[in-house]
C-alpha cells in the first residue's frame, strides 16, 4: 500500500514538473532578447491609390467672427484642423498672447501658415479679441 502511494506520488510530481518545464519552454520565446524594448504592432492596412473615401455630411456651426482686415486669412487658414470657433471660445486674451497663439498653431501644430498671413491673422485677433476691444 505504501509503495503504491509512493509510486502515485512520484508519477504525479513528475507530471507536474514535466508540464511546468513544457510551459516554461513555450513561454520563454516571448521574452527573447531580440524583442526586448520593441513594441510589436500589426502592419498598417495598405491603402489603394484609387480608393474612394467618403464621410457623411456633418454640421458645421456658423462662426460669427468680427468683420475686419485679416478675417479672410482667418477663414482660410484657421479652418483646416478645428473650427475657428476656437477663437471665440477663448476668454479675451492679451494682444501678445494672440501672437503666440498663432505661432503655436504654426510651430507646434504644423499649420504651415505663411509668415505674412500669420501676421495678418494675429493683427486681426489683436484688433478684435482682446479685453479692450472684444465685442462678440
Ligand atoms: C495644423 C492644425 C491647426 C491649424 C491650421 C490651426 N490650429 Fe488651432 N489648434 C490646433 C490644435 C491641435 C489645438 C489644440 C488641441 C485642441 O484643443 O483641439 C489648437 C487649439 C487652438 C486654440 C485653443 C487654445 C490652445 O492653445 O489650445 C485656439 C484659440 C486656436 N487653436 C486658434 C487657432 C487660430 C487662430 C488658427 C489660425 C491661425 C489656428 N488655430 C489654426 C491645431 C491647429
Instruction: Label the overall shape.
Output: elongated
Task: Calculate Rg over CA atoms.
Answer: 32 Å
- Run of helices and strands: HHHHH
CATH class of the domain at 71-128: Mainly Alpha
Q: Structural class of the helices, strands and pairings? A: mainly alpha
Helix share bin: 40-55%
Largest sheet: none
Ligands bound to this protein structure: heme C
> What CATH architecture of the domain at 71-128 would you give?
Orthogonal Bundle
| CATH topology (level 3) name of the domain at 71-128 | Cytochrome Bc1 Complex, Chain D, domain 2
Q: Which stretches are low in confidence, meaning pLDDT under 50 for 5 or more residues running?
A: none
Could you name the CATH homologous superfamily of the domain at 71-128? Cytochrome c-like domain
Query: What is the helix tally?
Result: 5
Q: What does the average pLDDT come to?
A: 88
Number of strands: 0
Task: Tell me the span between the first and last alpha carbons.
Answer: 96 Å
What percentage of amino acids are in beta strands?
under 5%
Amino acid at each position: 500500500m505504501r509503495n503504491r502511494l509512493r509510486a502515485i506520488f512520484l508519477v504525479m510530481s513528475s507530471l507536474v514538473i514535466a508540464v511546468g518545464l513544457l510551459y516554461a519552454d513555450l513561454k520563454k520565446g516571448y521574452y527573447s532578447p531580440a524583442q526586448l524594448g520593441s513594441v510589436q504592432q500589426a502592419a498598417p492596412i495598405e491603402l489603394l491609390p484609387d480608393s474612394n473615401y467618403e464621410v457623411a455630411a456633418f454640421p458645421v456651426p456658423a462662426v460669427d467672427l468680427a468683420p475686419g482686415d485679416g478675417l479672410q486669412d482667418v477663414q482660410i487658414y484657421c479652418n483646416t484642423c478645428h473650427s475657428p470657433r476656437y477663437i471665440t471660445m477663448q476668454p479675451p486674451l492679451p494682444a501678445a498672447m494672440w501672437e503666440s497663439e498663432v505661432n503655436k498653431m504654426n510651430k507646434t501644430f504644423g499649420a504651415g501658415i505663411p509668415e505674412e498671413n500669420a501676421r495678418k491673422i494675429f493683427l486681426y485677433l489683436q484688433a478684435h479679441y482682446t479685453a479692450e476691444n472684444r465685442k462678440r
